[in-house]
Design a protein that fits this description.
alpha/beta; Rossmann fold; 2-enoyl-CoA Hydratase, Chain A, domain 1; 2 domains; 7-stranded mixed beta sheet; 5-stranded parallel beta sheet; 18 helices; globular
């Protein structure tokens, strides 16, 4: 295998972008859709879909994504009633931990233990990535095609494409989920709910490492078909089910939609990514010395709360600091304990010592770079990082420092004091909005 890096690689590769004009669409930047508008849109969209007599698999986000699923699934339930032969809901966990029955009930909008009363006949399942029997193999992406899709970032490498068998065995697979700026793929949503949402580790690790090679700072919020989006789209073409998507643009931290689109995953995603780019990206005129990222409780470990770093790091000055403030978090990663052994390092730290790290899970290496950010490494100078990453969480100080991060006692954090500091930017609901510096006029 040959590994190469190409700054600026996040352009169009391998597959054609979706056409937003082909998707049914409602809303736009700055709009606030009413529940009645959303329900009517979903009903109309599914009424036109070919689902009669079909087994339908709905692939939906887990609790780390803001999305009004009770509203959307109630509308889908009514639209599919008497038409779909069978409906299965699969929670797109990727490699996140499974949701408990109480969590699923809150997330999907039913009484714990009684989903049948709200969604009669539906099966509701976690994507159990930890069980081998979860998956079925769809095929392989070979070395030549891999090189094309990734713009030469990956050569002499093939990957098996495995997916949750409930998706593969359905007649129709429908993604229902939001679109946000994303550190690996540019903008989330669409086919990303299949890969990595309900896929096996091989493609998850590979896709995340491709994004890490480009770097989160360059990839996040990049529009169009990035190398990772090309890889995801290619894998999705192997799914035997007919693929559709209800993509959404959610007002961050709320259950209100700015926009909704329905069509193929490529077309619906393209329509919502354009709105997300105008809705979920906030610009500042000058960098700040410090950011205090206040993490919502839906982020249960640093693996998911890392969004509080990479969505705000772009506005931090060289030598500055990002503080992730989350007293409720007590673990580095529930599902990836190995990250505590690897620690958090920049991309060049791993590439410069590739023989040492090549056999580690690439998804873990990618996550490590996402939280550590930009920097350099050399045998002579060691690792030098652009900004300091500080955890003010319930994780013990010795554990925090052992993974190459700085520690701050969460009890010492006075949010009001930080808000009064002109050198500090406080984000009260970190994790979904991407902050960038406004481009300077030529």
């Amino acid at each position: 295998m040959t590994l190469t890096t190409r700054p600026g690689a996040a352009t169009a590769y391998g597959t054609e972008p979706g056409d937003p004009d082909r998707a049914a669409f409602l809303g736009g930047p700055g709009e606030r859709l009413t529940p009645e508008q959303v329900t009517s849109f979903v009903a109309s969209a599914l009424a036109a879909a070919d689902v009669d007599g079909a087994s339908v698999c709905l692939v939906v986000p887990d609790g780390t994504r803001t999305c009004p699923l009770p509203l959307l699934l109630a509308a889908a339930r009514d639209a599919l009633a008497g038409r779909a032969r069978q409906v299965t809901v699969v929670i797109a966990l990727g490699t996140h931990q499974g949701m408990s029955e109480d969590q699923l009930a809150r997330h999907l909008g039913y009484d714990p233990g009684d989903s049948e009363a709200t969604y009669p006949g539906w099966r509701i399942l976690n994507h159990e990535s930890w069980l081998p029997e979860t998956f079925t193999t769809l095929g392989t992406i070979g070395p030549e095609r891999m090189a094309e899709l990734t713009g030469g970032l990956m050569n002499d490498l093939s990957v098996d494409v495995r997916i949750n068998r409930h998706v593969a065995e359905a007649d129709v697979a429908i993604v229902v989920g939001p679109v946000f700026p994303h550190e690996v793929v540019g903008f989330s949503g669409g086919n990303k709910y299949f890969f990595p949402g309900v896929s096996a580790a091989e493609l998850i690790d590979l896709s995340h490492w491709v994004g890490a090679l480009i770097t989160s700072a360059e990839m996040i919020g990049t529009r169009g078909v990035t190398p990772v989006r090309a890889l995801v789209n290619e894998a999705a073409t192997m799914i035997p089910a007919r693929r559709l998507a209800l993509c959404l643009v959610v007002a961050s931290g709320t259950d209100t939609l700015h926009a909704a689109a329905f069509g193929t995953p490529e077309d619906a995603w393209a329509a919502c990514a354009a709105v997300s780019a105008e809705t979920h990206v906030s610009y500042r005129d000058a960098p700040v010395r410090r950011v205090l990222s206040i993490m919502p409780t839906k982020y249960e470990d640093i693996w998911t709360a890392a969004k509080g770093f990479y969505k705000l790091e772009p506005i931090v000055a060289d030598g500055g600091e990002v503080i992730i403030y989350a007293p409720h978090i007590t673990q580095i990663s529930v599902m990836h304990p190995h990250i505590a052994e690897i620690g958090y390092h920049n991309r060049d730290y791993f590439l410069g010592q590739w023989e040492r790290f090549r056999d580690q899970p690439w998804g873990d290496l990618a996550h490590s770079t996402h939280l550590r950010g930009q920097g350099t490494w050399s045998p002579e100078a060691g690792e030098r990082n652009r900004v300091t990453v500080t955890l003010a969480t319930g994780i013990p100080e010795d554990v925090v420092r052992s993974v190459n991060l700085d520690y701050l006692d969460p009890a010492a954090v006075d949010v009001a004091t930080y808000e009064a500091d002109p050198d500090t930017f406080v984000e009260p609901h970190a994790g979904e909005v991407l902050y960038r510096l406004r481009p300077r006029a030529p």
